[in-house]
Amino acid sequence: MSTQHEQTSSSKKILFRILDGIEWLGNKLPSPLLLFALLALMVILASALFSGVSVTNPTSDEVIKVQNLFSVDGLQYIFQNAVDNFIGFAPLGAVLVTMLGIGLAEQTGLVQAALKGTVFSFPAKLLTAALVFAGAMSSIAVNAGYIVLPPLGAALFLGLGRHPLAGLTAAFAGVSGGFGANLFLTSTDAILAELTSEAAATIDPAYAETIAVSMNWFFAAVSIILVTAVGTWVTTKIVEPRLGAYEGEIAEEELATLSAQEKKGMRFAGIGFLITAVVMAYLSAGPLRGDGKYLESPFFDSLVFVIFILFFIPGLIYGITTKVIRNDKDLTQFLGKTMASMSGYIALAFTAGQFIAYFRETNMGTVLAVRGAEFLNNTGFDGFGLILVFIFITMGINFFIGSSSAKWVILAPVFVPIMMNLGYSPEFTTVIYRLSDSVTNIITPLLLYFPMIIAFAQRYDKSIGIGTLISMMIPYSVAFLISWVILLFVWMLLGIPVGPGAEIYY
């Protein structure tokens, strides 16, 4: 990547040099596949070293100990669960199923045709903001945004003659860094509200019953504006200038206007997409509505398959219309090419899956989270000082436990009562947690989708490693943190409720 920086080397700012240093250091690490294998080995050794260290779970009062994987039982677990750890690696199935649909649309030429149409009709100045905004809003579809938007952002930027990695990082920043922002309520709101209510009930059961799913809606809705503005600024002012011009092989492709056949294919594919979307809407309100809450319905549990269908059917129609697909053998060949392109990610998923499973099995993440909460309780801080300590502890814990709800299960029973005793409402405490959790999502390799983002980036630069991706995402992380903390304190000074009926002070 250093050759791409030559045009700006004479006037590099200190920030660029720091990021270059981080990239250089990070890329000295082994390949992601080998790195996760080494991390898995380190977890095994660390579990032996800290075996027996224990904490008390604040939720259940259960004593949790670090489990030794370097023991007879531990070695049996490692060998007996290697295949299950691979298959159970959460993003693996979702990514492969989704990519079957997206891959067919790409192989038949539908994606390229759609990008041509976008390039010649979409206001180029609004693309970055639209991409970050769509990324943040994608949390309504849980984790689907991780799979769809980063590669789409890269392709759109490339089509406009901009560096594809800038488009990928802008989308990733919106999806992951903006996970705590949305104009609508999501399943995450429902999960966190339930956990917050349980924690608040230990202090005030009557108050806990008033905590609603919409408890953070106002703050989350305003945060969408902040995330979009800050993400756009970082992309155009820091990330793109640092990347420079893209000189990869894909840049040699010319983006011609749509041919008559492509337009016909797009027209029929568009009709197919609309019909499919109508059918999906009917299913979401009917057979897949379920008996529970809408955000917990079978439809939302099936979003990966829904996305597959929404891409697969238009891609198939486009291929048949343009005569790219003439028989079932052509279809099989296209799907095979798609899976072949994901072979590197599949190999990476094996070692990443072992590492994630080992870390979970040893309980080390839980122990670290509880110890961090105990540290916060013993600091003696109050007011702004306590809030800042809370933010940084949550950010640190995010490097060890990737799941937002899993962390809140552990932290809510500690943080919520502490903040209530200091006069802050449980709803406001949850807001602090959500912004703290979001800003480090994009720089922690423990994020389940981090290896996948690297795999997407390597399509455009095969030399990219963990250091490169982290160095590109750090400016977003820092900018989101600073701007969100400023917004939080201004919100406090103005005394605005963080949601309907959810005041700042308890």
UniProtKB/TrEMBL annotation:
<feature type="transmembrane region" description="Helical">
    <location>
        <begin position="126"/>
        <end position="149"/>
    </location>
</feature>
<feature type="transmembrane region" description="Helical">
    <location>
        <begin position="33"/>
        <end position="53"/>
    </location>
</feature>
<feature type="transmembrane region" description="Helical">
    <location>
        <begin position="217"/>
        <end position="236"/>
    </location>
</feature>
<feature type="transmembrane region" description="Helical">
    <location>
        <begin position="303"/>
        <end position="321"/>
    </location>
</feature>
<dbReference type="GO" id="GO:0015558">
    <property type="term" value="F:secondary active p-aminobenzoyl-glutamate transmembrane transporter activity"/>
</dbReference>
<keyword id="KW-1133">Transmembrane helix</keyword>
<keyword id="KW-0472">Membrane</keyword>
<keyword id="KW-0812">Transmembrane</keyword>
<feature type="transmembrane region" description="Helical">
    <location>
        <begin position="265"/>
        <end position="283"/>
    </location>
</feature>
<feature type="transmembrane region" description="Helical">
    <location>
        <begin position="342"/>
        <end position="360"/>
    </location>
</feature>
<feature type="transmembrane region" description="Helical">
    <location>
        <begin position="438"/>
        <end position="457"/>
    </location>
</feature>
<dbReference type="InterPro" id="IPR004697">
    <property type="entry name" value="AbgT"/>
</dbReference>
<protein>
    <submittedName>
        <fullName>Aminobenzoyl-glutamate transporter</fullName>
    </submittedName>
</protein>
<feature type="transmembrane region" description="Helical">
    <location>
        <begin position="380"/>
        <end position="401"/>
    </location>
</feature>
<feature type="transmembrane region" description="Helical">
    <location>
        <begin position="408"/>
        <end position="426"/>
    </location>
</feature>
<feature type="transmembrane region" description="Helical">
    <location>
        <begin position="86"/>
        <end position="105"/>
    </location>
</feature>
<dbReference type="Pfam" id="PF03806">
    <property type="entry name" value="ABG_transport"/>
</dbReference>
<dbReference type="GO" id="GO:1902604">
    <property type="term" value="P:p-aminobenzoyl-glutamate transmembrane transport"/>
</dbReference>
<feature type="transmembrane region" description="Helical">
    <location>
        <begin position="469"/>
        <end position="494"/>
    </location>
</feature>
